[in-house]
Write a structure and sequence with these properties.
The chain has 313 residues and is mainly β. Helices cover 1% and strands 46% of the residues. Strand 4 (41-47) and strand 5 form a beta hairpin.
């Protein structure tokens, strides 16, 4: 496995034997293996070389290090989660595993500190959300940035909280004047965002919006001092890897691979991989000369996540 390039790892929807398919978008390399520890489980989040998984047959989530195959069982959960993640490498005793459960305008935040062991259980906090707060986005995971979680919903509400002191929180209502024109694109089509992702890139917090109408991709940078998002038109030499539950940035590993966003998208049923270029505002293949301006018709792998060996901690 090439350690310099991230790999897209996908599972079958019903994973009875831990089958995994590894795909490298840069050199178009694919290989298949089996990891029995991941059978009958679904991925919720991935970072630092670790996976946060939930079995199909019980409510006991676990952390799994893909390279060493180390497994850490977490306390059983008795809540319906909207999103789950962890704050740093699970090798650290300071790692916090968090879960968000949003029901009827209330956000219940569940926090488990790995250093407390299984007896630590889940600490629960309840927070009242503003009217219309909507995180109903498949695979959405809040960004952990500078010690706080940032949750941006598709109606333009930004909710910020510290998982160690959940009572300290901020909620901002954003609007088109804040530099987010997507709310003007589909004024009669309900919620404007089809997908939202947030991640850190070179010390900045980025938000990626994919609109409900026309599937247009927008990239914004959060300005903490002005409490607003600013449009990003060029990522420079950076590559953004975006998937449900796993997002990160990386410096370009080869010529013409920077200033692109790497979603789990492919052209046609058996076509080549499709990356999104901010320079052309279109999807392109590295092989075969495929190109199109939006994601309609692209094949999206929903049971897949990006993984990079150099993230392992």
């Amino acid at each position: 496995m090439d350690p310099s390039s991230p790999w897209l790892i996908s599972f079958p929807e019903i994973n009875t034997n831990g089958k995994c398919i590894f795909f490298n978008p840069i050199n178009n390399q694919t290989y298949e293996t089996s990891i029995p520890e991941l059978s009958h489980s679904k991925i919720l989040f991935a970072n630092y070389g670790w996976l946060l998984m939930i079995p199909d047959y019980n409510k006991i989530p676990f952390l799994f290090q893909l390279v060493t195959r180390k497994k850490i069982l977490l306390p059983e959960i008795d809540f319906v989660w909207s999103a789950m993640s962890f704050t740093c490498s699970p090798n650290s005793s300071d790692c916090l595993v968090t879960g968000l459960s949003i029901v009827s305008g209330m956000c219940n935040v569940f926090v488990h500190k790995l250093g407390d062991g299984d007896l630590g259980g889940w600490n629960e906090y309840s927070i009242s959300l503003p009217d219309g707060f909507d995180l109903g986005l498949t695979g959405y995971v809040p960004a952990f940035y500078k010690g706080k979680y940032y949750c941006l919903d598709r109606n333009g509400n930004l909710y910020i909280f510290d998982p160690t002191e959940v009572i300290a929180r901020d909620i901002y209502r954003l609007n088109p004047n804040d530099g987010i024109p997507i709310f003007d694109i589909c004024p009669k089509g309900g919620s404007s965002a089809y997908q939202i992702f947030m991640l850190e890139n070179e010390g900045d917090l980025l938000a990626i919006f994919i609109t409900k109408c026309k599937r247009i991709v927008h990239v914004y940078k959060w300005d903490e001092s002005a409490l607003r998002f600013c449009l990003v038109e060029n990522l420079g030499n950076n590559m953004l890897f975006i998937s449900n539950g796993a997002v990160f940035s990386k410096n370009a590993v080869a010529r013409a691979t920077g200033n692109r966003i790497y979603f789990p998208h492919f052209f046609d049923r058996k076509g080549p991989y499709a990356s999104y270029s901010l320079a052309t505002k279109s999807y392109h293949s590295f092989y075969g000369g495929y190109s199109q301006t939006n994601s309609y018709g692209l094949r999206e792998l929903h049971m897949a996540f990006w993984f990079s060996l150099d993230q392992c901690q």
